Amino acid sequence: MRFGAQTDEVTSLLRIVNLVRTGEASTRPEIGRLTGLGRGVVTQRVEAAIEMGFLKDGEYGPSSGGRAPRTLEFDAGQAYIVTCALGALHIRVGLATLDGEILSHAHRAWDIVRGPAETLDAAIALVEELLAQVDDRPIWAVAVGVPGPVDYESGALVAPPIMPGWNGFNVRRRFEQRFDAPVWVDNDSNILALAERVHRRADTVDLIYCKVGSGIGAGLLSRGHLHRGANGAAGDIGHVRVRDSEVLCRCGKVGCLEAEAGGWAMVRDADQAIADGATGALAARRQNGEPITPEVLTLAAIDGDALAISLVQRSARLVGESVAALVNMFNPGVIVIGGAMAGAGEIYLAEVRQRVYELSLPLATRDLAIVSSLKDESEPLRGAAELAIEELFEVSLPRWFASGRPTIEGVKAA
């Protein structure tokens, strides 16, 4: 069954599909109570939704005295969402269902400085390897996370400090050409904030996800929704100015938080301290010719290396000062610390908490929780799937629903 213009029938069908998809209703009588539609109309609409492939019959529910009602389920397995998370030194891809379950995923070490063409070819090849191992279902959406500023409306990167050659590159178009499906591209901190929302699910989540890896960024959730700002740059705290700092940042500016507290800055400072005579396990590693990375630094701190602990704690104090400014302005209920530095656990968190509580207003911190992120490599893929689901079913669904599946043109239509 297909429909033309947006009619009352289509509108009620839309609502019924979303009631079942979100779990607000699971039987025909529940749909009737929530929508006010008569039993015959509900039956007609549900049959249409089943014919279109959005809903399917489930098990019988509990009886309230009469015949047990047949439950309804959203058919989340009718199509795939392709998820892709690009990092400074890795590529992760996955296939997800329409309710966000990650069915399969793959990972490859990769240096993002190899440029957009080579990097996206490698990412798409990984996706194609996954697709070759599963049954043939349509791809309804692609969501991509990148470690740099993104113009969300166009899908193009804008002067990303750690991604030379990517400025102005339209990531969206490359995936659209290959998969012929709607594509959304966002900053990796925003993607990770959405992954946290999956675990909390309350519509009232006010959350800051602060990623401290090689670089530093933040994703902001306000009442459960991402706050990107006018151009998609909200939360880029890695390039706020640190007081009295004159250190040159990779972005070309001086005194950025990332240049003082990011993972790459900590590796730089560790190398300098070792050259100046610092000793310990971290120094021994460097002297043996082994590389120091942000992950190595956090592990060394946990193992008690004095140099690593001092670097980790200094990073946490500086990050805490910048986050405190966000706390006073944004008043979140939760701050999640993620990225490589989250691996240092309480060594890092304790310093962040101390600075936030010292520098923020009492009311803003009264119910504030500051926690580490889940250390799950699938989290960026889960967040990417959440982005695609939100765009498909909460933003653009009325534009493509009558066609039975999303298209690039249908999603973009006004």
From TrEMBL:
Against Pfam families, the record matches this protein to:
ROK
Q: Which InterPro entries match?
A: ATPase_NBD, ROK, ROK_cs, WH-like_DNA-bd_sf, WH_DNA-bd_sf
Source species, domain of life:
Bacteria
The record's similarity note reads: Belongs to the ROK (NagC/XylR) family.
The molecule here is called: Transcriptional regulator
Organism this protein belongs to = Microbacterium mangrovi
